[in-house]
């Protein structure tokens, strides 16, 4: 009987944890202009350096993104991408890092 209770509790925890999960905002950096070349998706909370600067797409899904012209989110935030709107730029971008606010 005890094994059944532990298994049921574990399954219930997975269901509750999965139901509360939400999509995170995503910054997609492209190597070339016009969303070409290699790309990387940045969607983790906190600071991330941006490896490509040719163009970008932002999918705002609950978290805002503070953009910095220096690596490691140093200095003053240059721009903030909205938490509830998408954005994109087809031409090169000077941002070197992002801080996704979670």
TrEMBL record:
Name this protein carries in UniProt: MiAMP1 family antimicrobial peptide
Keywords attached to this entry: Signal
Coiled coil spans: none
Taxonomy, superkingdom: Bacteria
UniProt cross-references to Gene3D superfamilies, sorted A to Z: 2.60.20.30
Record SUPFAM superfamilies: gamma-Crystallin-like
InterPro entries: Antimic/Inh_G_crystallin-like (IPR015791), Antimicrobial_MiAMP1 (IPR015201), G_crystallin-like (IPR011024)
Database matches in Pfam families: MiAMP1 (PF09117)
Signal peptide residues on this chain, from the entry's feature table: 1-24
């Amino acid at each position: 009987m005890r094994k059944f209770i532990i298994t049921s509790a574990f399954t219930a925890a997975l269901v509750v944890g999965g139901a509360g999960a939400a999509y995170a905002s995503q910054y997609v950096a492209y190597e070339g202009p016009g969303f070409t070349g290699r790309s990387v998706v940045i969607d983790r909370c906190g600071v991330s350096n941006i490896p490509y600067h040719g163009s970008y797409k932002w999918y705002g899904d609950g978290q805002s993104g503070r953009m910095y012209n220096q690596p490691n989110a140093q200095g003053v935030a240059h721009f903030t991408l909205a938490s509830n709107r998408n954005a994109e730029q087809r031409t090169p971008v000077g941002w070197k890092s992002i801080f996704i606010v979670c």
